[in-house]
Write a structure and sequence with these properties.
This protein is α+β, with helices and mostly antiparallel strands. It is built from 8 helices and 16 strands. Strands 7, 8, 9, 10, 11, 12, 13, 14 and 15 form a 9-stranded mixed sheet that branches. Strands 2-1-6-5-3-4-16 form a 7-stranded antiparallel sheet.
Length: 288
């Protein structure tokens, strides 16, 4: 495997960053997870747009232009002969001294890894996930806005630990007001009486790229989609439920906090959206 680091390709074994990089020391940096399907990078522009939005939010100067960053992602995928895979794009604040001051970091670093990913076992896509609600709440907007895909994912990791301790692969995170925000790494959707609902961004949900794709696919099918504040009660009484994420794609949920969702099997709308998403990925994207 070849790793892109600041303009050069390194073997996996020799790919290194400084222990004084503030991305390592303080989680001071941003990232994107991007998918490649059938020799094309899916929704690349949208991912790079979001990367630059995150950078602007934390006053991080990306040393490449938007177009250059897109080319680096494609070339790294080509270098690793990726046709169906996952690209992790990272921008750190760069090397600085001990201490928080970002002004001591003069040269931000760009790292691109193109590899494979499998977030959930294959059988869970077929039978659906059991998930639980965990005590760890989503970061406050006034503390660390969830829209920023920062390298500090400890909030999500703590929730993931609680999910694992509860015997589940994934968990629902609530915000400080008790409304559903998102899962530890996925956006969440429910269907009720022919309508589709997902938490609003203001509740702490990430502006997910796959989330946006699924909303468009549902609307094309004539399904009304809205983004109200949702409670656990709404989750328990859904007809269908599923999660979306670049890495996870679309995965059904069949039980929440011990309550069976629908008939306990992946629902027909969820299955339809999975097929439409797969069809879209076959024809859309930036050629590698």
């Amino acid at each position: 495997m070849k790793i892109y680091i600041d303009g050069k390709y390194c073997d996996e074994q020799s790919a290194k960053i400084s222990v004084f990089d503030h991305g390592l020391l303080y989680g001071d940096g941003i990232f994107e997870g991007i998918r490649a399907y059938h020799g094309r990078v899916f929704k690349l522009k949208e991912h790079i747009d979001r990367l630059f939005y995150s950078a602007k939010s934390i006053l991080l100067s990306i040393p490449l232009s938007h177009e250059e960053m897109m080319r680096v992602v494609v070339s790294t995928s080509r270098e690793n002969q990726i046709r169906d895979g996952y690209i992790r794009l990272i921008v750190t604040r760069g090397v600085g001294g001990l201490g928080l001051n970002p002004n001591r970091c003069k040269h931000p670093s760009v790292i691109v890894i193109a590899d494979k990913i499998q977030l959930y076992p294959v059988e869970m896509y077929e039978r659906g996930l059991d998930i639980i609600t965990v005590p760890t709440v989503r970061n406050l907007h006034s503390a660390l806005n969830p829209a920023i895909k920062s390298l500090n994912y400890l909030n999500n990791i703590l929730a993931k630990i609680e999910a694992n301790q509860g015997g589940c692969e994934e968990a629902i995170m609530l915000n400080s007001e008790g409304y559903v925000s998102e899962c530890t790494g996925d956006n969440i959707f429910i269907l009720k009486a022919g309508q589709m609902f997902t938490p609003p961004l203001s509740a702490g949900a990430l502006y997910g790229i796959t989330r946006g794709v699924v909303i468009e696919l549902a609307q094309q099918q004539g399904i009304a989609v809205s983004e109200p504040n949702l409670t656990r009660y709404d989750m328990f009484n859904a007809d269908e439920c599923f999660l979306t994420d670049t890495g996870a794609e679309l995965i059904p949920v069949v039980k929440i906090d011990g309550r069976v969702i629908g008939n306990g099997k992946p629902g027909p709308v969820t299955k339809s959206l999975v097929e439409k998403y797969k069809a879209l990925t076959k024809v859309s994207g930036e050629p590698i």
